[in-house]
Amino acid sequence: MKRSKIKIAALALALGAVSITGCKKFLDINDNPNAPSDADVTLLLPSAQAATGFVLGNQFQIYGSIWGQYWTQSPGASQYRSIDQYSINASSFDRPWRALYTNALQDLQVVIRKSEGAPQYRQYAAVAYIMKGYTYQMITDAFGDVPVKEANNTDITNPHYDAQKIVYDSIFTYLNKGLSLIDVGTEATPHEDDIVFGGKMALWQQFANTLKLRAFMRLSNVAGAAMADSVATLQNAPLLQADAKITYSTTGGNQNPLFAEILSLGRTVNLAASATAVNAMNALNDPRVKVFYTVDTTGGANTVAGIAQGNYNNVPAGTRFSAPTIIVGADPKNDQSALAPVKLISAAESYFLQSEAVARGWRTGDAKALYQQGITASFTSYAIEPGTYITTQVAAFPGTPADQIKAIITQKYYAMCGNQGFEAWSEWRRTGFPDFFVPSKVSSLGGTTMPARLLYPNTEVTQNANFPGLVPVATKVWWAKP
Hints:
By secondary structure, the protein is mainly α. Helix content is 46%, strand content 3%. The protein starts with a helix and ends in a 19-residue tail after the last helix.
């Protein structure tokens, strides 16, 4: 077994042993049991990538896909009822917070430190800076204000929190630093120690540029004029044309993180298809719906059906409904779910970001053509025959910029079904699209109020003397649509 696989297995076992709603242990974010200062960069880099991928593909995937209304709690089960109810517990976020700060960011920081004065590790540092930017965007988009300046400093056990604007400034700094270190022609790259691109630095260059574009677009509501100028700097920059993803195997400890969660819960069918996404995709005769969800073939029906969001207590006995499939790592009865990748940024997302930038007048190009490329990339990634779907959707591409943005984000939503749940939910928070979300039938928030962030972990409440205070789940993050 390769060193990176060994490290991933160890990490997955450590993080996957407890389900996302059951962890009660309090751990300090600066207390890393892996003692990374003693480890080699060739182990630390894949460990950090695996930690980020684990949280993105497990906890954040579940919250994002339920609150993004791809999935809902399955009748007859109970694991995710509190998520469907928007009634969540701060202790549920102890484990992902620790994984991101202690396992991912701390390891990345050590990679950067150990690479100083070591030319053979320069490309490791480049990847580490880029992954640091990616991971911080995940954290701040989930929680809002978070520690950055004083985070992962062994001399500071109670880090202060930084405003989201400062966090985003740091993200751009990390990405620019990583890009400045990239040498696409060097042979001294991570190779197998990089579990995302295998040390292909040209792809890391594309990834960093695409991540910058994503981050620029995320701030469209709060810094539009500045972001227009920033997006323009990427006009000729190479951007992703293929999925940036972490792949897995059926070997114990190396499975898709969501499937690892399912295994820890005894293969219970906890997730059902949400009628919100299913009905919208069925209305467009979208063939992807039969790839993302199980198909009922009873009596030759060949249909996909969802249940209303949060309606798990009121589904009549014998009602047939679909569930997420192996494609998104969520079929508990099929071990092929273990092979589903975790997508950090998809090719489809890259094209949709470019299309939106053009629609806003922030980038030159053909918004309609890029929109088509985004839809095509989604179909291609799942080897699905689109039939007339793409031509129909492109023919219906509207003329006004506002309507174009709505179409672009809505198609992005379909493309991210069950495979980029956290990003889809984040884009809904930013834009309000798709505009067909409905409150959960069991919402604890009342009215049309929807969840707008994750809760700070209980470990911060109890251990960080500089913790600024709890923020309700319905309070919008800085960049969200007003």
